[in-house]
């Protein structure tokens, strides 16, 4: 008797799983998917999961030709040569990515899902980090909308931007990388807003994995800006749990099923994906300290020309100057 409810709930969860799988297949099956940075790490795991769920064709866009060719070989062996395309292109180069998407329109009848995944961690070459993790991801997002948007004559689709979930207590040694990955959250919220979605029909999601076992993580201690930071970072890493790319790719399939446009999803410690809701700026807790006294010189009136709107009295020093 005691284990009866358990068995019942196990049966229910198996049914639920089967139902979820069916819905995911409905979203992925027969679809063409583009994955940047898909030759290795998380990207390669995404490739395999999309194919497992019946994707029609996958295009990997990556700068690493050797890894790209290996990926094509492995996928061909399991799923057949018609399932995979590799294009060598650098996401930080707008025209290379635009050319890659143009090339894909000849081998794919439509582009349905784009995973904006290519990224690096290298605090010593932070300009390159910004060029790939911010500019490159902006280029891919922009081009993905051009090649999927209903307003451009296409069918709409899904764009997934890869951010990262951080605990600043343990990753303070990665200031530039952290900034670049946080940018993906705001980009996704903005491009995923109804203003864009209603026009493009492209659902934009942000996926923020926690620490995951890939080359990026393994090499990260050697990509920091000082030896002291490396020592501190390695100490922190030893105390963190690390998940596999498989778990993240599996979670992505669930997110595709239930993520609304503009939503932000976290997968960390190998757990089920969960959505995070960033508070509206008006609801953020305000702290004025003692040296900052806001006064409303004019009540805010709707429709008043911008130049007439002055919230704070000019005679009072602003927050920044008052700190000096
Ligand atoms: N590993 C983690 O812990 C972790 C956690 C959260 C988010 N991420 C993010 O996930 C994404 C993938 O990271 P990963 O851990 O799989 O790294 P990885 O280094 O294992 O793989 C990255 C892939 O991207 C490719 N790439 C790099 N720069 C490129 C460029 N300019 N153009 C095209 N391809 C390029 C690489 O050749 C490689 O194949 C990155 O955006 C990363 O920031 C990683």
Automatic annotation (TrEMBL):
The keyword Iron is assigned to this record: no
Pfam families (alphabetical): adh_short
MF GO annotations: oxidoreductase activity, acting on the CH-OH group of donors, NAD or NADP as acceptor
InterPro entries: NAD(P)-bd_dom_sf, SDR_fam
Keyword Oxidoreductase: yes
GO terms for cellular component: cytoplasm
Keywords, sorted A to Z: Oxidoreductase
Family in the record: Belongs to the short-chain dehydrogenases/reductases (SDR) family.
The name this protein goes by in its record: Alcohol dehydrogenase
Organism: Cotesia glomerata
């Amino acid at each position: 008797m005691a284990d009866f409810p358990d068995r019942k709930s196990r049966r229910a969860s198996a049914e639920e799983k089967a139902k979820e799988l069916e819905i995911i297949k409905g979203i992925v099956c027969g679809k063409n998917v583009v994955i940047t940075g898909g030759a290795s790490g998380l990207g390669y795991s995404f490739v395999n999961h999309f194919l497992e769920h019946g994707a029609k064709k996958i295009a990997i866009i990556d700068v690493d030709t050797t890894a790209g060719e290996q990926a094509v070989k492995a996928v061909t062996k399991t799923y057949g040569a018609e399932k995979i395309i590799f294009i060598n292109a650098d996401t930080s180069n707008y025209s290379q990515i635009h050319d890659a998407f143009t090339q894909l329109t000849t081998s794919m009848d439509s582009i349905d899902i784009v995973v904006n995944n290519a990224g690096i961690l290298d605090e010593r070459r932070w300009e390159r980090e910004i060029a790939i993790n911010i500019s490159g991801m902006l280029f891919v997002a922009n081009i993905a909308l051009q090649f999927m948007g209903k307003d451009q004559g296409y069918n709409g689709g899904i764009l997934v931007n890869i951010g990262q979930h951080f605990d600043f207590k343990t990753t303070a040694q990665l200031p530039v990388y952290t900034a670049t990955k946080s940018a993906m959250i705001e980009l996704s919220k903005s491009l995923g807003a109804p203003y864009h979605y209603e026009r493009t029909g492209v659902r934009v999601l942000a996926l923020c994995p926690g620490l995951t076992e890939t080359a990026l993580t393994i090499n990260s201690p050697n990509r920091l800006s000082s030896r002291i930071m490396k020592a501190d970072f390695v100490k922190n890493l030893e105390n963190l749990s690390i998940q596999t790319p498989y778990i993240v790719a599996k979670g992505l399939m669930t997110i595709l099923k239930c993520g609304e446009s503009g939503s932000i999803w976290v997968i960390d410690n190998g757990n089920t994906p969960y959505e995070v809701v960033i508070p509206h700026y008006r609801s953020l807790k305000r702290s004025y300290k003692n040296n900052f006294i806001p006064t409303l010189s004019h009540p805010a009136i709707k429709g008043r020309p911008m130049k007439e709107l002055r919230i704070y009295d000019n005679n009072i020093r602003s927050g920044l100057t008052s700190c000096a």
